[in-house]
Here is the input.
Amino acid sequence: MEDMIKRILDVDTKARNMTSKAEQARALSLRNIPERTTKLKQEYLERANERVEKVEAAEKEAAEASFLEKASVHKEALLRLEQIFEHNKETWVNEIVKSVLEE
Here is the structure.
């Protein structure tokens, strides 16, 4: 009988120790929540900023490529207009002079 009581007391002591350790772990976890929350927010913001920088760089590169393409098209159009002008300027001048003189 004494052996049975001793075993019950041992089990009770172990249970109390386990409960105490669990409560300490819970208290530690609760104390660490604000720090962990701050750390997670900081990590999230860092990842978000890195992503923004990557997207910004990609957008800038795409805009630069688009600009260069449009600049090339405009340059070609300007060259065509200059060629047309060089080819037709004498005719146009003559037509303008003729039109003015006929009035």
Remarks:
- Helices lie at 2-102.
- The chain has a mean pLDDT of 93.
- The CA atoms of residues 40 and 102 lie 85 Å apart.
